[in-house]
Amino acid sequence: MTAVIPIVADGGCADAPVLHQRGQREVFCGLTGIVWLHRKVQDAFFLVVGSRTCAHLLQSAAGVMIFAEPRFGTAIIDERDLAGLADAQDELDRVVARLLERRPDIRLLFLVGSCPSEVIKLDLSRAAERLSMQHQPRVRVLSYSGSGIETTFTQGEDACLAALVPQLPAEAATAAPSLMVAGTLPDIVEDQFARLFATMGIADVRFLPARRSGGMPAVGPKTRLLLAQPFLADTTKALQSRGAQLIAAPYPFGAEGTTRWLQAAAQALGVDPARVRAAIEAPRERAVQALARQRALLQGRRLFFFPDSQLELPLARFCARELGMVPVEVGTPYLHRHLMSEELALLPAGTRISEGQDVERQLDRCRADAPDLVVCGLGLANPLEAEGITTKWSIELVFSPIHGYEQAADLAALFARPLDRRTRLAA
Ligand code: SF4
Question: Is 3.50.50.60 the CATH number for 30-151?
Answer without folding.
Answer: no
